[in-house]
Design goal:
Layout lengths: L2 H5 L7 H15 L7 H17 L2 H8 L17 H9 L3 E2 L2 E2 L14 E7 L1 H6 L1 E12 L15 E2 L8 E8 L2 E8 L8 E2 L12 E12 L8 E4 L15 E7 L6 E3 L2 E9 H6 L1 E6 L10 H4 E6 L8 E4 L14 E8 L6 H13 L16 H9 L3
Parallel strand pairs: 3-11, 13-17
Antiparallel strand pairs: 1-2, 4-9, 5-8, 6-7, 10-11, 12-13, 14-15, 16-17
């Protein structure tokens, strides 16, 4: 069969493309990965194809219609196992034997941990210090992370002699193929814990609850993560701990709504106050903090005469502090309340006011709706 078709490459494919195609097929059909007899036969075919196309002389001979081997396929005719393993593992073969990786270390870094913390809006804005109780893996105090019972130590594995790997020999048309696999007796560690620690079972760590103090900086928001270095899970064998991440969730406030570093709130005033103007004392976000100074607990909002419902007033620098400095604004929206129930005296006064203003039979003022960009574009297209 055509080696180009077997590898799925074009006739002008370069060496890198050919090697990449072979690696992909070899991983799929290699006997160690796919024990199906049909897959093994397929592996032989793609290996034949790669043998031809990876050798410039053999590839040229095939392209000319000649025999690239000068007489039949077969092992021992210029195709070494090192060539296959170099393509399969990226140069991990030497003299027909795959290079080993050595034993796995028992001491490894621990995993990072994540916990979620609920805080109030004022705490998120101005910062807070909290104590957290966390359940994580800590170093076993009995064996100090070694995993062995007191007075004992890991012993060298007799199966792999401490290498952590054992060689497996497989015969094929290429000859003997030697591959290295993790030792099943020691699970690749190269040593065996014959007498494991009874407290940790040989892992070198145990679960424990501990208390941590975390400082939440000012300006955090929902989703912000605070990193506590080396406060996560202790690694196997008493290895270094990972990091602990505290993810913030800010509770909804009954008065203020946060948008970025700006705070928004709505204040409702009667229509008489909106018409005549007034000054209103309102609580600040700082009022939610303990031991807040009186001057920081309230602010004065001046409502100008004739204020309309929906008017926004911005108080600069009264919002949420930023994580990198600065502070947002407080935007107050004025909602003018129209009375729904009037007694006879109030109704008469309002009628007198309407008469004085010539508003007994007011005419509504129609205003064109504000059109968006697409609406204006449509009108221009239609010649309006």
């Amino acid at each position: 069969m055509d080696p180009y078709e077997l590898l799925g490459v074009s006739r002008d494919a370069d060496d890198a493309t050919i090697k990449k195609a072979y690696r992909k097929l070899a991983r799929e059909y290699h006997p160690d990965v796919n024990p199906d007899p049909a897959a093994q036969e397929r592996f032989k075919e793609v290996s034949h194809a790669y043998e031809i196309l990876s050798d410039p002389q053999k590839r040229a001979a095939y392209d000319r219609g000649g025999d690239p081997f000068g007489g039949g396929f077969g092992a021992g005719q210029g195709f070494s196992f090192t060539d296959i393993m170099d393509a399969f593992f990226g140069g991990a073969a030497q003299g027909g034997t795959a290079a080993g990786r050595g034993p796995r270390p028992r001491v490894r870094r621990g995993q990072d941990a994540l916990i979620r913390l609920d805080i109030e809006l004022a705490e998120a804005a101005f910062g807070v210090t909290r104590e957290l109780k966390v359940d994580t893996a800590v170093t076993c105090e009995t064996c100090h992370g070694e995993g062995t019972a007191p007075g004992s130590h890991p012993i060298t594995c007799e199966t792999c002699r401490g290498a952590g790997e054992v060689a497996h020999v497989q015969r094929s048309f290429l000859g003997e193929i030697r591959t290295l696999r993790p030792c099943a007796a020691c699970r690749g560690f190269g040593t065996i814990i014959a007498d494991p620690c009874r407290d940790c079972g040989g892992d070198g760590r145990v679960r424990s609850r501990r208390t941590l103090t975390v400082k939440i900086p000012a300006g955090v928001d929902t989703g912000t993560r605070v990193q506590l270095a080396e406060q996560g899970e202790v690694g196997p064998g008493g290895g270094p701990a990972g990091d602990l991440y505290v993810e913030i969730n800010v509770a909804r406030h009954e008065t203020f709504t946060r948008h970025g570093n700006d705070l928004h709130c709505t204040v409702t005033i009667p229509m008489t106050a909106a018409a005549l103007g007034t000054t209103i004392t309102l609580p600040t976000l700082e009022a939610d903090l303990p031991d807040v100074a009186p001057q920081d607990a309230t602010f004065e909002l001046e409502v100008r005469p004739g204020t309309q419902s929906g008017t926004e007033q911005t108080l600069r620098g009264r919002g949420v502090p930023g994580l990198r400095g600065g502070r947002g604004d407080l935007i107050v929206t004025i909602a003018v309340e129209t009375p729904t129930k009037l007694d006879p005296a109030q109704e008469e006064l309002l009628r007198q006011l309407a008469t004085l203003r010539g508003e007994e039979q007011p005419e509504g003022q129609l205003r064109a709706a504000v059109r968006g960009v697409f609406g204006r574009f449509r009108d221009a297209f239609n010649g309006r």
